[in-house]
Amino acid sequence: MAAIKKILCPTDLSDECRPALAMACEWAKQFGAELHLLHVVAGLSNPYPYLGPPFNEAMSWETMIRQKARDALTACELPEGFALLRVVRELRSGSPVAQIEEYAKEKGIDLIVMGTHGRSGFSHLLLGSVAENVVRRAPCSVLTVRPAEPPKPTA
User: Fold this and answer.
1) What is the rounded CA–CA span in Å between residue 125 and residue 123?
2) Domains of the chain: total
3) Looking at residues 113-119, what average pLDDT do you find?
4) Residue 54 has pLDDT above 80, yes or no
5) How much is the pLDDT for 55?
6) Does residue 58 fall inside a structural domain?
7) Among the four 42, 90, 115, 140, which has the fewest Cβ within 10 Å?
8) Where are the beta strands (DSSP E) in 32-127?
9) Which band of pLDDT confidence, cut at 50, 70 and 90, is reported for residue 98?
10) Cα dist from 64 to 11, 43, 58, 60, whole Å
């Protein structure tokens, strides 16, 4: 079995990603691996630079959005019991699938652990699946983690 030294856990910083983060932490602890947390901000384009404010203010919006995302990524806490893991946090802009693939190649990632949102039907057709595309394009193995099941009502 190949050594797992670097694990990437892409996150959109939502609660649905918590199970994947917990699983990535477990694997990182088990293998003594470095854990990489990656958040990708969808790139903002400036379609009307010649129109003047507010249309050409995309850069100030992007700066603000990136700062909020950076703050959220920095504040993203690991589950209890994993405080001693070596963690690298990275924020990028662009297509999530392309950035995850590029990051994994650049950093020599051995395993990607990522959550799925469990969409189906029309929302899956409309929104697609980042996880599906990462599985197809990743340069390494990918472990997808389903969201936690909501508690079932008791009778």
Assistant:
1) 5
2) 1
3) 79
4) no
5) 56
6) yes
7) 42
8) 34-41, 87-93, 111-115
9) very high
10) 19, 13, 10, 6
